[in-house]
Amino acid sequence: TLYSLAPLKKQAGSLQIIILSLIGPMKNHLKLIQSLAFVQGDVDLHVVGPVYDKEYWAECLLASATLPSSVRFHYHGEVAPDRVPDFLSLAHVFACPSESENFGHAILEALSTGKPAITSFGTPWMDLEAAKAGKNITVSSDQIALAIQFFIDMTDEDYKNWSNSAALYARSMVNMESIRSQYYSLF
Fold first, then answer.
1. Side-chain half-sphere of 12: how many Cα atoms within 13 Å?
2. List of residues 6+ apart from 148 with CB closer than 8 A
């Protein structure tokens, strides 16, 4: 589903990040959490999704407990699909440092709301930086931290530009008229 949200006010030096996915090793929650120890600024990480791997989640919780006081960790659990926009509205940036994604529906939903994405090269969502729609990164804590720091340092004016570009990028990748036409031709 493509959503539309007004850009969240952004202050240089602070950032709201959301990761919305199953919680398991493939999605790299742990590397995302660990990367936050290396950033400078005021950060809130919102984790949304069901726990798929309990041992892995225990590692994530241990890592979150060692984060500096300037980083706050929030776990919201599993949410109903109709509540996704509510949670996306909490964040400036969507993180999905997954090893790979077949499509990455959550990435598309986040981009459509104007949330620049930080994601790996293992997704179909490429050339994000050129489109000012996010950052494609290699999945390592230092690369994740650099991408996060880029957005932490961003001013409100720059963020609004990137937010608008993210929404345009999502819509350019999905031709709704073509999809609607194909849907109706099935019936």
1. 5
2. 15, 17, 35, 36, 39, 43, 93, 95, 118
Alpha carbons 162 and 114: distance in angstroms, whole number = 8
Would the pTM count as exceeding 0.85? yes
The 10s digit of each residue's pLDDT in 121-154 is: 999 899 999 999 999 999 999 999 999 999 999 9
The residue type found at 129 is E
Mean pLDDT taken over the chain = 91
DSSP conformational letter for 66: T
Summarised one tens digit per residue, pLDDT across range 28-59 is 999 999 999 999 999 999 999 999 999 999 99
In contact, 34 and 63? CB cutoff 8 Å: yes
Q: Which amino acid makes up residue 145?
A: A
Cα dihedral 170, 174, 82, 33 sign: negative
178 vs 109, residue with greater confidence: 109
* CA-to-CA separations, 128 to 112, 137, 146, in angstroms, rounded: 13, 10, 15
- Closest among 32, 17, 173, 40 to 88, alpha carbons compared: 17
Q: What is the pLDDT of residue 105?
A: 87
